[in-house]
Amino acid sequence: DSVKDSRRRSRATESSWPGRQGNQYTIRGVGGDEDDGTEIGEGGDEWMHGKTLIKPPDQLDLTEAELKEEFTRILTANNPHAPQNIVRYSFKERSYKPISSVDQLAVHFFLEGNLLHRDSDEARRQKAKQGLPDEKATVVTETEDEKLETPAAGGEEAGDVEEGGGEDGEQKLTNQFNFSERASQTLNNPLRERGCQTEPPPRASFSATANQWEIYDVYLEEMQKQEKNKEKAKAVPKKEDDKGKKKLTLSDDLTKVAKVAKIIERMVNQNTFDDIAQDFRYFEDASDEFREQEGTLLPLWKFQYDQAKRLSVTALCWNQSYKDLFAVGLGSYDFTKQGRGMLVFYSLKNSTYPEYNYPTTSGILCLDIHPDRPYLVAVGFYDGCVAVYNLKEERPEPVYKSSSKSGKHTDPVWQVRWQKDDMDNHQNFFSVSSDGRVVSWTLVKSELVFTDIIKLSLVGAVSEGPEACGTSFDFHKQINYLFLVGTEEGKIHKCSKAYSSQFLETYDAHNMAVDAVKWNQFHPKVFISCSSDWTVKIWDHTIRTPVFIFDLNAAVGDVAWSPYSSTVFAAVTADGKVHVFDLGINKYEAICQQPVVAKKKTKLTHIEFNPVYPIIIVGDDRGYVTSLKLSPNLRSKPKEKKGQELPRGPEVEIAKMEKLLSLLREPENSKA
Amino acid sequence: QAEVEETLKRIQTHKGVIGTIVVNAEGIPIRTTLDNSTTVQYAGLLHQLTMKARSTVRDIDPQNDLTFLRIRSKKHEIMVAPDKEYMLIVIQNPSE
Fold first, then answer.
1. Are A620 and A602 in contact (CB under 8 A)?
2. Which of A61-65, A130-134, A281-285, B63-67 has the lowest mean pLDDT?
3. What is the model's pTM?
4. Is A347 or A309 the better-scoring residue by pLDDT?
5. R_g of chain B computed on alpha carbons
6. For residue A52, what pLDDT is reported?
7. What integer is the mean pLDDT of A78-101?
8. Which of A384, A471, A371, A374 is nearest to A418 (CA)?
9. How much is the pLDDT for A467?
10. Chain A: nearest CA to B73, how far in angstroms?
11. Which of A600, A602, A635, A638 is nearest to A620 (CA)?
């Protein structure tokens, strides 16, 4: 019944660590197998029971054998509160594993103290702070004292202390929790390099400048594109045109150089004929100041074309819009030598090669450039045809041509003149021919429509007698319907467009054919005529006899009024001379008579004044055209009286002429 | 196109003309009557100069454009006529 030290294991009640054996006290329990809880309780009761043998009322009733049974109780040092079955995940075996040893320590009381071991780092640091020297430090300072001689004792100590502290400070600073270094080497995976190469993207270098004009160009292009789009929206798009355009851009290389080549050619010519160009512009004959009544002609460029060598110049005409462009008609006056002809256009800027040239089958006899449309040229041929050329077009044929069906003349056409557009806005021109007809041609769409205006006849009234041959005509500058016709018989008829049956007037002008008849540019009444009978006559159309007669000693080929003065005119003769007259200066003689061609046998056939520049062009029967500059005396303007403004304008010219005429009329009146 | 050929031929045979070069927009000579090295030299240098001159003219007034360029030196005269796509260079001795 008392507590006995007998070792008897009744049951393994708790799992015990291998190797760990706690003191096992077995308490013999009176009774049979019981649970632990009840065992302890029972043990207590049993002890009390052994002394007094008082039986509590709730005591279990057990048999004697059961009461003598011994129960083993084990007392271990294991913490009953410690968990007994801690399980941890093991990554190696990838499963949960129970931990074999569990911490059995149970802390009942914990108190942090403030005592440091004197050799620990913290303690040393504190000592250093406080300035108490270490055992080691004292030894060092003593040695240093012996070494140093000069510093004072106090200073030495202080210095030593600092040095000692410094030595302490030189030690590695670690953390306050007993720092320990630990390093490990990981497995380094071997490095592999891997690369791949791609094709580089296509590159193109681009550079540009951004100037003001480039921006302007871009804007212009945009605008043009927009306009084109608008037009395309209106019109039906044509695919064929696009293809055509593509072909053009591929095939040609050089046609785009055309414009540039032209410019260069002109430049080269300008260089070669530099002195002529300078003369043309600037030269004024100074000797004219000493010769009051005379003037000179300065030769400038000479125009000739290889293929036109045997032809003679039969017509000359300046272009009204492009002042440096003139047309030359080439053919032959010789009845026996009729062959081909040529229409050639020259510019003053290039005297070596024509700007345009059109070969023709028959010789040209006359031409006229439309005053408003400078690209239209009317041409009259020796075989009686008339044709109209359009300079804008590339082809060498005329745009319109009359044929025997459409009323062409039966004899050579001696003169053509453009008229103002008729009421239907069609261009029309007149032609006069040796067959006696004055015909008006109208350009209707693609045809020439002709209208006979008047038929000339030998005797005064029309439709009587054989037909006369017209050799020249001219329209009045201001009065549109009035025109003059010169005939081969030497008569000049004044006619009107309105009256086709009758002449307004007839003048017995010359003994031979009238080569040229021209109205004065300013005075509305005056006209001039010239003939192969060596004379040049000036008329007032109200008077039947000429006002002035000039005998030039050779057949006069052509006569022309000057565009700047009403009293100046020029005539060319068959002996190669140019005669310039100024009636304001000298009423009887020419103020200039000058041969202009080298060989005396060449006849001069035509002359024209340039409307703007002070030059004249003269054509001869060898196919050459010579340009000459008029000296200042030939271009004189009326002198101003002192104090008065210089009068300008056509009225002055008219007045000048009128004065001349009145002078002549007075003596006539006085005679009459 | 034959007309252009003819014009160029006339220029080449004109009095005093030493040589002609046709250069395209990038400055590469297309046609020339001079030897290769001279051509290349002329083309390269004049192309740059023309571009510069044109740039100057247009900077002042964008609506304006360069028509031609003349360089007169002691020995001869170089004339350049630029175009949108091509450029023509002519070297002439004007005093001959």
1. yes
2. A130-134
3. 0.63
4. A347
5. 14
6. 59
7. 83
8. A371
9. 60
10. 13
11. A602
Give residue A445's Cα distance to chain centre: 38
SS3 A212: helix
Cβ proximity of A602 and A616 under 8 Å: no
Cβ-based neighbours of A327, under 8 Å, separated by 6 or more? A315, A316, A317, A318, A319, A343, A344, A345, A367, A369, A377
d(CA B34, CA B78): 14
How confident is the model over A326-339, as pLDDT tens digits? 998 888 877 777 77
Q: Return the H-helix or E-strand segment holding A418.
A: strand A413-418
Burial class for A89, CB neighbours closer than 10 Å (0-12, 13-18, 19+): exposed
Report pLDDT digits (tens) over A365-415.
Answer: 888 888 888 888 888 888 888 888 888 887 777 777 777 666 677 888 888
Is residue A348 a contact partner of residue A324, using CB atoms and an 8 Å limit?
yes
User: Does residue A641 have a pLDDT over 60?
Assistant: no
What are the domain boundaries of chain A? 291-637
Please answer yes or no on whether B17 and A268 come within 8 Å at the CB atom.
yes
Q: Does B83 contact chain A (CB < 8 Å)?
A: yes
> Please, which residues have CB within 8 angstroms of residue A333's CB and are 6 or more apart in sequence?
A312, A314, A605, A621
Do the Cβ atoms of A523 and A654 come closer than 8 Å? yes
**In this structure, what DSSP letter does residue A309 have?**
T
Give the tens place of pLDDT for each residue, A153-164.
Answer: 444 444 444 444
CB A608 within 8 A of CB A316: yes
Cα separation, A653 vs B58, in Å, equals: 46
Region A291-637: CATH code: 2.130.10.10
B55 and A258: CB-CB below 8 Å? Answer: no
Residue B11, min C-alpha distance to chain A (Å): 6
Q: What is the pLDDT of residues A584-629, one digit of tens each?
A: 778 888 888 888 877 667 788 888 888 888 888 988 888 888 888 8
Tokens of A531: 């003939």
Nearest to A431 by CA among A366, A372, A502: A366
Q: In this structure, how many other beta carbons lie within 10 angstroms of the beta carbon of residue A610? A: 20
Contact A613, A323 (CB under 8 A): yes
**Can you tell me the distance from the alpha carbon of A336 to that of A339, in angstroms, rounded to the nearest whole number?**
9
- Top-ranked range on mean pLDDT: pick from A316-320, A384-388, A442-446, B37-41: B37-41
pLDDT of A246 higher than 50: no
H or E segment to which residue A449 belongs: strand A447-455
* Residues on chain B touching A274 (C-beta within 8 angstroms): 94
Query: What token pair was written down for A329?
Result: 């008609």
Burial class (CB in 10 A: 0-12, 13-18, 19+), A27: buried
Token readout for A647 is 């009068």
CB A262 to CB B7 under 8 A?
yes
Give CA–CA dist A652/B78, Å, rounded.
Answer: 49
Residue A3: pLDDT band by 50, 70, 90 thresholds?
A: very low
Residue A243 above 50 pLDDT? no
Rounded to an integer, what distance in angstroms lies between the CA atom of residue A315 and that of residue A329?
5
For chains A and B, CB pairs below 8 A equal 95
- Residue A108 CA to residue B46 CA, distance in Å, equals 106
A217, A259, A268 ranked by CB distance to B83: nearest = A259
What spatial distance separates the first Cα and last Cα of chain A, rounded to whole Å? 203
Two tokens, residue A250: 């591929």
Biggest alpha carbon–alpha carbon distance for chain B = 38
Q: A456 falls in which pLDDT band (50, 70, 90)?
A: low
